[in-house]
Amino acid sequence: MSSREAILARIRSAVAGAPPVEVTRGYRPSRDEPGGVELFAERVRDYRATVHVVPAAQVAATVADALAGRGARRLVVPGGLPEEWLGALPPGVERLGDVPPPSAAELDAADGVVTGCAAAIAETGTIILDAGPGQGRRALTLVPDYHLCVVRAGQIVPGVPEAVARLDASRPMTWISGPSATSDIELNRVEGVHGPRTLEVIIVL
User: Fold this and answer.
1) Which has the least CB within 10 A, 31, 42, 171, 202?
2) Cα–Cα dist 179/200, whole Å
3) Is residue 30 within 8 Å of 158, Cβ to Cβ?
4) Which fold has domain 35-204?
5) In terms of Cα–Cα distance, which of 114, 119, 129, 118 is closest to 81?
6) pLDDT tens readout for residues 114-126
7) What is this structure's pTM?
8) Residue 177 and residue 14: Cα distance in Å, rounded?
9) How far apart are CA 39 and CA 92, in angstroms?
């Protein structure tokens, strides 16, 4: 018997005959206060991300302006992204899809990626991706140096409990709170270590 098996056997022996324990999963929800869009935008800006709050009719122009400001000519576009969001892109912008899946080197060579999201949290300024339509697999958003994310106002919830209630726990999820950054080395902030160095968010009213 291995050490692991011996430990598990002792645990089973200790709890044998004990009554079942019900684990309560009723998490306290956040207060549903007005101003979720404003709070979310404020928190995302706190993470040094760029935020635009626009009506639906201006999304395409805002996407085009954001990409033009970076000189983006090669863009990762996951399947299912609403085509109208890219309707104002100038001719000549190359789109890199995920069929067939691009290599890590191809993703790294791209100027950025445009996605939607599954949900967003006002209290923490967090964006959640679950590989659904318009989001793509994780590599599409973790390898390129620039991530432009479009968030609909209706996807913004007050807090974490409300976000979890909307999500499917069986899906692969990425929780994003600002650009990738770490302060592990002498408490000096370094961005772009394990994900995009730059995050830009368009909130659609």
Assistant:
1) 31
2) 9
3) yes
4) Rossmann fold (3.40.50)
5) 114
6) 999 999 999 999 9
7) 0.81
8) 43
9) 37
Residue partners of 87: CB distance under 8 A and separation at least 6: 60
Burial of residue 76 (CB within 10 Å: 0-12, 13-18, 19+) is: buried
Q: Does the structure show a pLDDT above 60 at 34? A: no
Q: Which residue has the tokens 């793509």?
A: 136
138: exposed, middle or buried (Cβ count in 10 Å: 0-12, 13-18, 19+): middle
